[in-house]
Automatic annotation (TrEMBL):
GO terms for cellular component: MCM complex; nucleus. It catalyses: ATP + H2O = ADP + phosphate + H(+). Residues 381-588 form the MCM C-terminal AAA(+) ATPase domain. Component of the MCM2-7 complex. One of its GO terms (molecular function) is DNA replication origin binding. This is DNA replication licensing factor MCM5. It is an enzyme of class 3 (hydrolase). Residues 126-156, 593-621 are annotated as: Disordered. Belongs to the MCM family. InterPro entries: MCM, MCM5, MCM5_C, MCM_dom, MCM_lid, MCM_N, MCM_OB, NA-bd_OB-fold. It comes from the Eukaryota. It comes from Chondrus crispus. Keywords: ATP-binding, Cell cycle, DNA replication, DNA-binding, Helicase, Hydrolase, Nucleotide-binding, Nucleus.
Amino acid sequence: MDGYDEGTVYYSYQNQEDEAQAASGSAAESGRGNILSAVEVRRRFKAFVLGFANERYRYTYRDRLRAAVNAGTLSLSVELAHLTHFDAPLAATIREGPDRAIVQAERAATEAAAVLQNTAIEDVIATDGQRETPAQPQDRPSGTAADQDDNAQSASLNDISRRGVQVILRSNETGREIRALGSSDVSKLVAVSGIVIASSKVRCKGTAVVLRCRNCNDKITVGVNPGLGGFAVPRTCRRVLGENEVDCPLDPYVVLADDSKFMDNQTLKLQELPECVPTGEMPRSISLSCDRYLTDLVSPGVRVDVIGIYSVSGAAAPGVGRGNKRMSSGSSLSISARAPYLRVLGLKIREGAGYSGSRTAVSFGFEEEEAMLRISRTPGLCDIISRSVAPEIFGHKDIKKAIAAQLFGGALDKTLPDGMRLRGDINVLLLGDPSTAKSQMLKYAERVAPISVYTSGKGSSAAGLTASVIKDKAHGEFHLEGGAMVLADGGLVCIDEFDKMRLQDRVAIHEAMEQQTISIAKAGITAVLNARSAVLAAANPAFGRYDDTRSSAENIEFQSTILSRFDLIFIVRDVRDDARDKMIAEHVLSLHQRGSEKTNGSRSGIFGKGSSGKGNAGRDGAELDVNDGAAYGVIGEGNEARLDINSLKRYIAYARTRASPRLSVEGAELLRTNYVSIREQMRAKQLGDDEESGNTVPITVRQLEAIVRISEALAKMTLDSTVTERHVTEAIRLFKVATLDSANAGAIQSAEGALRPDVRLDVQRVEAALKRRLAIGSMASERRLIDHFLDEKYSEFAIRNAILVMMRRGDLEYRRQRKYIYRSQ
């Protein structure tokens, strides 16, 4: 720890001053405002550790430090609020000059730990912060049990002195955005919030490196500053030459790793929260340097509040470096540029108030909680919330209710005794014609969800959605970097143009949609990341829009493996109806008329009154006081009643935090009865209908679990603790108008499980013949294949079903405007 108190991290220091020099140098700084000297910081911090008492007159940090020493964890967590209350000048010094102040604080904590280890608690006097002289032990024969205790105590004191105590700072202050940090914050204590997107391996970083000259065997010790800065090995020997002695050659020093001191160090990459990034801007990121007990605490996808020193490190200029003979005229200016980073002094994972997985720190004041409870008691709240979802979009009542249920989610803490976790998030797929407002509903859901990530299928890859392994250029190591589903852990992932994704990219999210984890095994890294997020996807039919001249199964080109992971699947049709078209035209024209009026505050648009839908304030509006209960409530009356986006967003966060409904006995019985009845109806239809009954599929256990999740979400909307028959009835109705109708239309037709035995046998025969006719890696015209098998006396229904079955399994793919069939496996 001796090399920690010298200077900042702008450059490497080759000389170490003794304590007296450091004290005299720090005394000059004491004239700047409230900056205390190094000796004063150490004395006051020791007094704080030994003397701070809470409202119950218990010595908080004295007990905390003793427990840490007994556990072998030499770290002490300090609340900045306690420090400010106890000694305001000391807290101000740590905020304004944390580089040197934190070193003295750690030395003071180390001395306090030694005092507590060597002195009984009742003998410690902490009023003046002076170190007590321990009572001398009485004479006793050598080798007694007491003598052995003294030896053990001496060893413990030596260990404390050698390792030192790490001071970890804690604060409840609201973290700043990364883009708000500037040059005026350099070398000061700052608090930022963000999401960890990458983490390196834990490495050993030297704190005191011992160097030996290869020529004369002279040894020197070089102190290394913490953070991302390193140290420069002297190019010449520092030994004082005697008479008739010659200089040692250049670069004589080698590192003696066995004699050097090291500590754990890890580098993280922190990115701005997705909901805090302004529209049209790239998210900012910053590197974090964690050491000792702050390493290996988080993984990519975790949202954290960080407090640390805003520091800078040297960044090599482009084109300037070893082996480059040419140096441009602007290189000296480039070398002076510094890359900012954060030396972490405290790290807190956001827990306890979350959106699916307890990852969002959401706090509610008393008045706000009263407002949330008042909203929950509103009659017909489920319908009001449904109308609040994309209110400017005409119709689609059931789709809006499904999205509302998805935003609230089912019960999120279902963990079985064997450790298995049941999914509580609801996945929804909107499949239909263009110009049916699918993308607009995705955009609104992305804005109203407390945690959300919006992406397009065409511009998304498997690594971009899940996780990727990145090679660190500086050290040559590989580290994980989370994708969209990891960044949205505990939130909502909106995927537009889902049908434009490549097949292998869609397959990559199978595990994330059902198990809600992402398993990585690349470049020697084996890890499992959390992806506890709901998926809202929008897609178009196979031919761009729904083709009525083709069968329903031909309009859908998704595999059953991905379709079965969606709890609700809506087929959105653009039906030609004069009366409906007239109503839609009037609605759209009224929107344009109101939008051109540019009224401010007199109307409630898609984002409510003066809100952009992000955070608690509009980007060009006033800040919303989240503790003001009057700011929330239902606006409008009757069929026009709804919640504005700020009220809805906060109510969703409140409901997901406070409500966790459980299925009642009556609700479970009703669900069981309907489940058995629907399966019986499907079975009767399968046996009684003709060949076209192949478009139906029986309800499976996966769909049963989907109805349970929808029922829980409906109960959560009103903060009910029990799922009643009313919730189950509405969930079954919603399921029937969505997924069940899609199943009848052929959207979720499973492999061959719904065909009659004779038809299934014909399909299997055509499939075997098709495999013999079309080799792996070859391609043929679909029309020619169908004509060939028609000549072989197979029915066209069996031929087309065999092709569809192989398409959904991934054996076949369409090529060249869907006119040719390619066999991939």
